[in-house]
Design a protein that fits this description.
The chain is of the alpha+beta class. About 25% of the residues lie in helices and about 15% in strands. It has one domain: Beta-clip-like. The radius of gyration is 20 Å and the shape is globular.
């Protein structure tokens, strides 16, 4: 079931858009999950319709037991809160309701706000209210594509953008010796993340039934042009530039400074990247999630070349006014658009 605004063969689900090469696998995985779940209900004489199955945790499971144990998280609490976000429980919710296509807002009760962060790219996302551990902050939105396609997108996706986007990139490198290609690679690489490994692993169905996940090869989530405000969340590293002396790009201890994490949660057979608070977060505190040392290593070459040419990541964000980056005075905050907001208008047309 393709959502509004989807291209041919794409699938829109829970604020995510799946590439045409991945969408059929997602549909098959969801169909297999539903068939197995209904068969189990009939075998146990509990009915034979989806509405006879509870919403959480019967229809979903967190696929990362290690993360749950490490942070002392509650599996059932996370599933219950995600079910509410997806409209499967609560006021107007139904356990047999179709999954929303999107976009999905981030948790309204957290009152998330965009904040200035000069040390980490110019801006970030902060809590405007107290957030408790196990709070589901939202589903990280974006475009999901095969890793091979993501490599092409990161290398030359700007060529498929509209003329206005290419002109913005050209203006962004004015006064530097960096070129548009380098600026794009830095930009695209900054807003991509590996899709949760649960997509390659087995996606469990409630009970003892386990079904193969939809993707046989790694996938990438691109938030540039497609993501929601979750893309603003920074890594806790103070100096992620791997080529700078004294950097903490590979430091293991930074993981303990993160206050939220992206957990893979299988919902009706498809694994979603769900943003969860891993500890209590105070009002005004910036949200931080660990990107992993691999992220900074992969971006290091392009990042170093860009800065050697006089183009910093902070300046690039400011010149392009990404999420308002660089547009606020020191110490100012602005409410984050927790609906789906494009990082760069027109960039979504660059998805392969």
């Amino acid at each position: 079931m393709a959502g509004a605004g989807c291209g041919p063969g794409e699938l829109r689900l829970c604020g995510l858009t799946f590439h045409p090469h991945l969408a059929p696998g997602v549909r098959r995985a969801m169909a297999r999950w539903e068939a197995a779940a209904l068969e189990r209900l009939r075998a146990e004489r509990l009915g034979g319709r989806l509405r006879d199955l509870g919403a959480a945790p019967e229809q979903m499971v967190v696929c990362d037991a290690e993360a749950l144990s490490q942070h002392g998280l509650s599996h059932d609490t996370i599933c219950a809160r995600l079910a509410r976000l997806l409209g499967l429980v609560g006021e107007g919710g139904r356990s047999d309701a179709p999954l929303p296509e999107g976009p999905l807002g981030l948790a309204a009760e957290a009152r998330l706000r965009r904040c200035t962060e000069s040390a980490r790219g110019g801006c970030g996302l902060a809590a405007g209210a107290a957030v408790r551990r196990n709070t589901v902050l939202g589903v990280v939105g974006g475009y999901v594509m095969p890793a091979v396609a993501a490599e092409g997108f990161g290398a030359a996706g700007y060529r498929h953008c509209g003329a206005d986007v290419r002109a913005e990139l050209a203006r962004a490198v004015e006064g530097t010796t960096a070129d548009v290609s380098t600026a794009w690679r830095l930009l695209a690489g900054s807003y991509c993340m590996p899709y949760p490994e649960g997509l390659q692993a087995e996606a469990p169905v409630s009970g003892s039934v386990r079904l193969a996940g939809p993707f046989p090869s790694p996938a990438t989530l691109c938030m540039l042009g497609w993501g929601n405000a979750a893309a603003l969340i920074n890594d806790p590293r103070a100096q992620p530039r791997a080529w700078v002396e004294g950097n903490d790009a590979a430091a293991a201890m930074v993981a303990s400074e993160a206050n939220c994490a992206v957990l893979p949660v299988a919902v009706r057979g498809v694994v979603l990247p769900v943003l969860v608070a891993v500890r209590d977060i105070a009002p005004g505190e910036q949200l931080l999630r660990e990107y992993g040392a691999g992220w900074s290593r992969e971006l290091a070459g392009t990042w170093e070349v860009a800065e050697a040419g006089g183009l910093s990541a902070e300046a690039l964000a400011g010149r392009l006014r990404l999420w308002g980056g660089g547009a606020m005075g020191s110490g100012q905050e602005a409410a984050a658009d927790v609906q789906e907001a494009q990082l760069l208008s027109g960039a979504s047309g660059a998805a392969p």
